[in-house]
Amino acid sequence: MATGSVIAIKSLWKIYRTGEIAVEALRDANLEIVPGEMLAIMGPSGSGKSTLMNLIGCLDRPTQGSYLLMGEEVSNKTDNELAEIRNRRIGFIFQSYNLLPKLTALQNVELPLVYRGTPAKERRRSALEALESVGLGNRTHHRPKELSGGQMQRVAIARTLAQRPAILLGDEPTGNLDSRSGAEVMGVFQDLNRQGSTVVLVTHDENVAAHCKRVIRLRDGEIIADHPVVQPLDARAGQMAPPALPGGPKSASGGDGW
Questions:
Q1: Measured between alpha carbons, how far is 190 from 234 in angstroms, rounded to an integer?
Q2: What is the pLDDT of residues 179-208, one digit of tens each?
Q3: pLDDT per residue over 87-144, tens digit each?
Q4: Model confidence pLDDT, tens digit, residues 28-83
Q5: Among 97, 107, 204, 230, which residue has the fewest nearby CB atoms (within 10 Å)?
Q6: DSSP-derived 3-state class of residue 7
């Protein structure tokens, strides 16, 4: 594993036990992600991609193996330590936007900074900069009901960006969006990646993967493929039809129980 890795996973296992039954949700996973990558983690339902996302996002601990996040071993941290790492280093974007309906876009973006105790002027500046970065500088005083689905997801991304995470981790971030809104959101991720952000997207959508630079595929808890995307699609250029990607089927629907 390279010393400059953002994420370095070695021989990672996650086993869930129910009585005498043991389910190997993740088996001997090895993965390295360097700064500035944009990659998709893919697999059908039950493949282990949600388990891998939870481990990468410090939402869970592995049964065994090593996970270095920015050079720090996190596999043996306590719940409180993991929560602190999540707050400082990882920005989550989920399929549901989780915006408060009575707050404006600006107030929604500021909210995590309020909980952090960030001074008012600083959090206002950070929130405005984040909204500008996702193209919503003219929507700061709009409430969620006044925004499209794509705009709401962009507010959710801005809320994450305002916290200045080292890694953006998206869980089916375009899953609730039509193709046009999905293109808007993928364009934002690509723009952020061009600016240096490390972006990891967990998805079953080949179209999302086609906009990334690298694709990791899982099946039955194992990483079965790890390959670059030779010519990623550019959402800003209106490219949304996925090319053939090696290493997996053209479609894999459904959520991920693991």
A1: 8
A2: 888 888 999 999 999 999 999 999 989 999
A3: 889 999 988 888 999 999 999 999 989 988 899 999 999 999 999 999 999 999 999 9
A4: 999 999 999 999 999 988 899 999 999 999 999 999 999 999 999 999 899 999 99
A5: 230
A6: strand
Structure token pair of residue 17: 């036990």
CA distance 65 to 54: 15
**Maximum pairwise Cα distance, the chain:** 57
What's the pLDDT at 248?
46
Specify which residues 169 forms β-bridges with.
92, 200
- pTM (two decimals): 0.85
Q: What is the pLDDT of residue 239?
A: 57
> Of all helices (H) and strands (E), which one includes residue 8?
strand 7-18
Q: Which residue(s) pair with 33 in the sheet?
A: 7
Measured CA distances, 245 to 143, 176, 206 (Å): 39, 23, 8
Those residues whose C-beta lies under 8 Å from the C-beta of residue 16, and which sit 6 or more positions away, are 22, 23, 25, 258
Integer Cα distance of 167 and 203 in angstroms: 16
Q: What is the CB neighbour count within 10 angstroms for residue 19?
A: 5
Token code pair at residue 159:
């809320």
Q: Considering Cα of 74, then 78, then 83, then 84, what sign does the dihedral take?
A: negative
Strand-by-strand arrangement of the 198-202 sheet: 90-93, 167-171, 198-202, 38-42, 214-219, 222-228
Residue ranges in the chain assigned as alpha helix (H): 49-56, 79-89, 105-116, 120-133, 149-161, 179-194, 206-209
Q: CA-to-CA distance for 180 and 175, rounded, in angstroms?
A: 12
